Amino acid sequence: MSQNNTQNQGHGGAPVGRSPHHPRANTNTNPSNRSNAHRPLRGALGPTGTGQRGLPDAFLEAVRQRSRIEELFPPGALRRAGSCFVALCPWHNDHNPSLTVDPARNSAHCFVCNRSADPIAWIQEQQGLSFREAVEELARRYAIPIPEQDPQAAARAEAERQERQRLLARREAQQKRFHAALLADLAAGGTGAAFLATRGLSATTAEAWGLGLNGARLMLPIRDLQGRCCGFSGRSIGGEEPKYKNTAADALFRKSELLFGLDRAAQAIRRSGEALLVEGPLDVIQLHQGGFPQAIAAMGTALAPGQRQALQRCGLRRLVVAFDADAPGTAATGRLISELRPMLCAGAFELLVLALPAGRDPDELLRSEGAEALRQRLAAASHWLTWELEQLLAPFRQAPDDLAVMQRCEVASRKLLAVLPNGPLRQRAEHTLRKVLGAVPSVPAGEQAQQGDLVDPQQGSGGSHSAIERAEWRALRLFFAAPECRAMMAVIRYQRPLHQRAIEFLAEVEKRLPQSTGQSDPLPDTVKDLTPRVEPELAQLLLDICREGLGARERLGQGLPEELMAILDVLEPVVEQIKSW
Questions:
Q1: Which pLDDT belongs to residue 296?
Q2: Is the CB of residue 79 less than 8 Å from the CB of residue 96?
Q3: Which of 68, 91, 163, 220 could form a disulfide with 115 if both were Cys (CB 3.0 to 4.6 A apart)?
Q4: Residue 432 dihedral angles phi and psi, to the nearest 5°
Q5: Nearest 5 degrees, angle CA 98-CA 100-CA 103?
Q6: Which residues is 115 bridged to in the sheet?
Q7: pLDDT in tens, 96-132
């Protein structure tokens, strides 16, 4: 929306500040299937009474009441429409203003994609903040005192905040100094300029990304989702080892929470729902320059929970993995799929694997064959299970008469089937294995992953967790499986803190949902939509519960009362709460 076609809303709230190298901040794009016009999402829903992330409810309510949604937009972004404002919706590819900003309701709602947000949720998504960070940002903006529950904890938090601010100022100063050195080198045609030329990177690209030079290393700024420089990855340009040298971990630079290029890729991910994960930072820059703005790198080959959550906050629906087509890259792809399999089976997002020529990486393919060839390969990327099966069966296809190879394939097949729950994915795997091997390797009953297994995926299938914890897992599963049992499951006293947070979250979400009609239960889809807004450990548990609960109802059948009584034989409801309902 241009300045000429909009009018300033006239409020005094300052727009969100961003780095000069940072494009407009972004948010989740997964549209809900239900209309929430009168039910704005209130950040990551929290339990009433106890507060969210340890913040008192009175404080949260003060933040919600005193912060104004219309003041959180940059000047000129809103246009008056009666008692409301309209703006371009950030949650879908909007060309005509479809986002209604209602000061009376203090919420923003899009009638095209049916997404809503209150001030907390809005700033949380726009700036890529956690729930607590968003609340505290609004509290500071509106001069609302932040409560100090534990003086020692508050002192530690303030000390860490000041240390982060000190480090941030230092990193920004370093980035400017490194960048100035590279600009001088480019003007003189020095070693930095020569190295960038060998990688096909233009001076314009180097300047746009704020690249720098420090001795014999090209300095790549690593930014958070807000575009702030948190650290550097130094790439050797003269053959020095190690090839990449990152900033040491500190209060600001936490590699497991950062993704290289995400600050610049977030908008493209929000629009398409797709992220392209590659190995190296320079690959990311080359891909952006070549027309693939969804490219990111994890500065390694793993994807930590904090990195996954950052991607999901940007609306990730499809992750395309494009690691180098060599033995280490193939092994890293397999490890990544194994790590993410519970989320993939639960439908948190898709994962596809890009097929590359042997020994090549996406950067090399782009430079040698062009953007169109890479787009065609992206369109033909394989589903993660298809890729796993191809890798598993490749040795057998090459040597079908080798009994040792056949045995290894059988063992690997059994291991794969053991971790796939019953359903279409498992059926597809069995069909493929039967077609190639002539039979489906049997999985012992004790090893097979069933949709209704009494196993907390966060703890594993061993016997380390107690009977009470196992019963709590069954209670959480029953909350999903049986709406008629939810009131009882919500008043159980859960001993494991993570389980207690999960039931409080689920009960609050369920309370705010419209009543379901017929066979439709909106809870599972709503929980999946909200998991990117909670901490990774709780998000994973919610996805696991959702997957298990969806399949439990049919299997329980007439045994539902017995399951309920078995749970209540172990767990203790809170009597006072039972009397209240």
A1: 98
A2: no
A3: 91
A4: -65, -45
A5: 170
A6: 110
A7: 888 999 888 889 998 887 788 899 989 888 887 778 8
List all residues 6 or more positions away from 264 whose beta carbon is below 8 Å from its beta carbon. 21, 22, 23, 209, 288, 293
Same domain? For 239 and 277 the reply is no
3-state helix, strand, coil in the chain (%, to 5): 50, 10, 40
pLDDT digits (tens, 9 = 90+) for 373-426: 999 999 999 999 999 999 999 999 999 888 888 889 999 999 999 888 888 899
CA–CA gap between residue 426 and residue 63 (Å, rounded) = 47
Coil vs helix vs strand at 216: coil
Burial class (CB in 10 A: 0-12, 13-18, 19+), 242: exposed
Average pLDDT of the chain, as a whole number: 80
Cβ 413 vs Cβ 392: under 8 Å: yes
Q: Is 155 within a domain?
A: no
Q: Which of 357, 380, 403 is the last residue of a domain?
A: 380
Q: Say if residue 229 is in the same domain as residue 272.
A: no
How far is Cα of residue 401 from the mean position of the Cα atoms in its chain? 44
Judgement on whether residues 245 and 261 belong to the same structural domain of the protein: no
For residue 312, is it within any domain? yes
Number of domains in the chain: 5
Shared-domain flag, residues 403 and 479: no
Note whether 320 and 431 are same-domain residues: no
Domain of 18, in residue numbers? 3-141
Contact yes or no for 436/392 (Cβ under 8 A)? no
Q: 110: Cβ–Cβ under 8 A, 6 or more apart, which residues?
A: 89, 91, 92, 94, 98, 99, 100, 116
144 pLDDT tier (thresholds 50, 70, 90): confident
**Do 12 and 128 share a domain, yes or no?**
yes
Q: pLDDT tens across 319-328, in order? A: 999 999 999 9
Which carries the bigger pLDDT value, residue 388 or residue 140? 388
Q: What is the pLDDT of residues 28-74, one digit of tens each?
A: 333 333 333 333 344 443 333 434 446 787 888 889 888 999 999 88
CA-CA-CA-CA dihedral for 260, 266, 268, 272, to nearest 10: 110
- Find residue 231's DSSP bridge partners: 222
Flag whether the pTM goes above 0.85: no
- 162: which 2 tokens? 């000041």
Query: Which of 141, 172, 191 represents a domain boundary (last residue)?
Result: 141
Q: Are residues 296 and 422 in the same domain?
A: no
Burial class of residue 305 in the structure, from the number of CB atoms within 10 Å of its CB (0-12 exposed, 13-18 middle, 19+ buried): middle
Q: Residue 201: which CATH number?
A: 3.90.980.10
DSSP 3-state of 132: helix
- Measured CA to CA, the distance from residue 255 to residue 409 in angstroms comes to 36
